[in-house]
Amino acid sequence: MTEGPARFLWWAVPAAVAILAGVLHGTLFIDDAYITFRYAENLAGGHGLVFNPGEPVLGTTTPLFAMLLAAGKLLGLAVPTSAFALGLLSMAGVVLLLQTLALRSVSRPVAAAMALCVALHPDTAYMATSGMETGLSLALVLGGLLLALQGRWFLVGGVGGAAILMRPDGILVVALAVLVALLRDRKKLWQPLLTAGLVVLPWALYATAVYGLPAPHSIQAKQLIHETRALDVFTGQLGLLTQNLPLTALFTLGVVGIGFAFVRRSELLLIALWMSAYAGSLVVSGIAPQFAWYATPLTVTGVVLAAYGLDQAVTRIAGRERPAIVATVFLGIAVLGLMHVNWHGFRTDGENREAAYLEIGAWIAERAKPGDVVFVGEVGVLGYALLEQVVVDSSGINSPEVFKLRRDELVELRKDATEPVSPEGTWRWVQTTIDQLEPEYIVTKYPWLHIGKIEDSAGHQALYKRTGPDNVMLLDYRVYERR
Hints:
By secondary structure, this protein is mainly alpha-helical. The chain has helices spanning 3-25, 31-44, 63-74, 79-102, 108-119, 122-129, 134-149, 153-166, 171-184, 190-211, 217-225, 230-241, 245-264, 269-285, 296-318, 323-344, 350-367, 380-385, 400-415, 427-437, 451-455, 458-463, 470-473; strands spanning 373-376, 390-393, 441-445, 464-467, 477-482.
């Protein structure tokens, strides 16, 4: 085989495997993805980037992803279809970018084996098929770091600015680019700052004018309802990174790789710095670590450091490079370990919950009038299923009035409390919300919304009757219609 076709296969095979693995994995959209879907639908429909038309609140942390999905909608693509396609393509891009970064420190066979390991990684399939912006965000991060290493300062600023609009933690890309510029070419430090500012400033001005502040409201809402001690966030994220033997092996080798990168001043140290900064941002956020998509960028990116760590360790032991050994180990981890996890590790109750909410949403949509208020325990799927209704979510992510009720109650509860107070609060904020909004429908999974307490009250029974699709009535879901 000539060099040209062989070189093409080195790159094409891992990227194709990543796409194929995602297709075989199938869509596993999570509830949060549907929040952004609703924002995209409203934007494409001419209502602006809002959850409920006429209510300017930014409850999605990824305005750029919502804009891309809206653009797909205007071109004739369904929003979920666009999300799935972008997820697959972005994770193929992540594989190629990690391979490019690896080639700066290891041989081609090791880089290719590492890329195949990433392509078969369970978190790669998860990011590609979850409907979230995570894959595209990670591709922008890795692209920005690569451009920083290449000294392409104007470009890295533009990519870093896009990363910020994709997710707020994208600011780490700009910060690290500035650090590299300080160390390598201080006179051009202004270049990444200029282009990043040109990308971000228009959005910041728009968001401030429309929403009152450029930061997504969802951040403070999640910090309120998922409040967790920093130590618990750290241990929780660590558990996600080491939840089984193959992932633990990759994590351990990644730590070894960080050590070698530090000692040898490898360019991969920049990857380690980003991972450390990103992990630190998760810890200081104080948001509970039950959301797997927060940790997946670390597990996937860490594979390149694991490959470097094993390569350096084998070189020290054998006295010279042994790429065949390193490549074989990584292919073994991917095929024997990660493949099994890929097909079995991420099938939780999410599919059943999504199906139940879609059925409930379709049932309500047949009966409700446009503009009817629906109060929900989980907002994503139902919000997308009820595009013509006003959907009020109990988390306050897209409903500032609910956020204020929950926050004010917690402040009062904690004034004289001698023990920790749950962020769930009491049933009173739920009842106050119902009294103020008088929703036509209330939907929740038992026992959320303190629904056991609420539905037993005489006042609730006088105003609402329990109803819903026959199939859902038998499950732990509650649907109430105003009498």
